[in-house]
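RidA family protein structure dump, as promised
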Amino acid sequence: MNVIDTKNAPGAIGPYSQAYEANGFVITSGQLPVNPADGSMPDGIAAQADQSCKNVGAILEAAGSGFDKVVKTTCFLADIADFAAFNEVYAKYFTSKPARSCFAVKDLPKGALCEIEAIAVK
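structure tokens r here:
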């Protein structure tokens, strides 16, 4: 097992890793829409979905994988009414249409509107 760590995605805000590579799979932690350069979060679901996708992509790249190798995602929304707007952005990144679960949760860390985690092959 190998810990994946990149400065191109936000660092963990708790006792966990950005991702692990094990047995040919890359498993990311949930990625909030935090800009890794300055810790800020953009406003609105579209901009936040875009940043979360960029963060997932940076981790996948650091692990030697990519969006085209993602087999499963789990997406969390603070408001299910954002589902369509979230999907519009998500579809631009996850073009291979991996298996997915997407649901609304009561709250996300830092008041984020979305969070994305992924499982990919190397």
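The longest strand covers residues 70-77.
lmk if u need the other ones
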